[in-house]
Amino acid sequence: MAVSIEDIKTLRDRTGVSMSACKSALEESGGDIEKAIDVLRKKGEAKAAKSSERSTAEGTVAIVVKDGKCAVLELLCETDFVGRSDEFKAMANDIAGKILSGEISPGSTDVPGLSDAVIKLGENIQLSRSELLQGSNIGSYIHSNGKIGVVVVLDGGDEETAKDVAMHVAATNPAVISPDEVPQDLVAREKEIWRDQLAKEGKPAEIVDKIMEGKERKFREESALLKQSFVKNPEQTIEQFLNGVKVLSFTRYSI
């Protein structure tokens, strides 16, 4: 019998197996999704069908840079043991390489062969997010635990400078590049808290506005990459370290 693409996708989402395997199972089960899951289990896909319902709180970040392009992704699994394994990290890097080459679209969660890894490793494995970035000077950094990865794109400078900034972003997790980019609604929310605190402290009304200006400036600067003290040399800010080199973007993944 003919089966709908919607049912195939539903079965794919629930089991993690390939679209073709889902189509065959649905045809064999007369279009019944629950029976199709049983069909897949009987054919050796049982682990994939059961694992797809379990939570994924561990994993690794992978970054591949080549010829002015960079693929970054977050591959999730169930346990830290699997997430730290060489096999799992190699799989993440392989997927990143395929995103870089165009074999897999950035942002896609449909990865060929992923269901085979689910069966082999016995865990739910999900490609939660991925991006493809471009630039003339790209720096990347992955923390030793594999759970924090950063990509920085600079206009000018060199790869080592970009890598140093990426390492800084991994450590401090800035919200924006420059103070003026901090969202106004976020500032407004903080202002409500500050005003309440100042009122409870009994600060004179004539100096409240001046105090508020100082608090806003500090809040914006602490949130902004360029104004943060450089982790490798706290005596200078990132802006001073870059010395005219412009930060075009930064991307930080954290599991």
Note the gap between the termini.
43 Å
Provide the spatial order of strands within the biggest beta sheet.
1-2-3
Helix share of residues? 40-55%
> What oligomeric arrangement do these chains adopt?
single chain
Structure notes:
This protein has 255 residues and is α+β, with helices and mostly antiparallel strands. It has helices at 5-15, 19-28, 33-51, 80-83, 86-101, 114-121, 159-172, 184-201, 205-223, 238-242, and strands spanning 58-66, 69-77, 126-134, 137-142, 148-155, 229-230, 233-237, 246-254. Among the domains are: 5-51, Ubiquitin-associated (UBA) domain (Helicase, Ruva Protein, domain 3, Orthogonal Bundle), CATH 1.10.8.10; 54-134, 2-Layer Sandwich (Tetrahydropterin Synthase, Chain A), CATH 3.30.479.20. It is 49% helix and 22% strand. The strands form three sheets. A three-stranded antiparallel β-sheet has the order 1-2-3. Strands 4-5-8 form a three-stranded antiparallel β-sheet. It has a two-stranded antiparallel ribbon with strand order 6-7. Strand 1 (58-66) and strand 2 (69-77) form a beta hairpin. It is elongated and about 80 Å long. It starts with a helix and ends with a strand.
